[in-house]
């Protein structure tokens, strides 16, 4: 189903979201969405913009037609403030010029909070797209979800870490990958710059069990979490050898 033409613009203000009273690592940009005579504002991180770009060019556009630049990884940018804002401003300007009523990609519409009729899609504040992060991490071991509330990812992906409980409590973290939120083994990722707020190490509330969303009858369908280490090791062969060596040394 086609929706009305959509226009997007970058707001002048930026903000840092908070979670459990702590500042997030992610800078959030305010994006103005205009559709069918209505307008609203969504808050998106730079990584969210990269996810949008990925879906636009998987579902709708050829990059030769869109002429939208592929957004680089944030850590590869020397200036992460004004130059990033200018880049996103130009990106949204170009996207608005080509975003006619042919945008029918579900993830892209969800990003803009637009439903398939062009109306504002009210997204719950605790939904995956709005959950703030406390750190960002590179994936160094491929992992395939073993339950409905886990994440799957490939080596080289970026994961936004949401919950990072002490190791003595659990080795499972919770994070955001694209538009999905779920649990994953912490040994499968490496924190970018390895910077973790000291105050977070002992005070982050322990998240719910990774299998809390499963019915009891479903437990037999998945290996117990204490045995998941073997599953992770089985997947380690696809990792970059240098990354795998650095992790295991």
TrEMBL record:
GO cellular component: actin cytoskeleton; cell cortex; fibrillar center; Golgi apparatus; nucleoplasm
UniProt xrefs under SMART domains: SH3
GO biological process terms held by the UniProt record: small GTPase-mediated signal transduction
PROSITE patterns (alphabetical): SH3 (PS50002)
Keyword Secreted among record annotations: no
Pfam family, one: SH3_2
Residue intervals of the SH3 domain: 132-194
GO molecular function annotation: GTPase activator activity; phosphatidylinositol binding
InterPro entries cross-referenced by the UniProt entry: PX-Rho_GAP, PX_dom_sf, SH3-like_dom_sf, SH3_domain
Keywords: GTPase activation, SH3 domain
Protein name as it appears in the record: Rho GTPase-activating protein 32
UniProt lineage: Eukaryota, Metazoa, Chordata, Craniata, Vertebrata
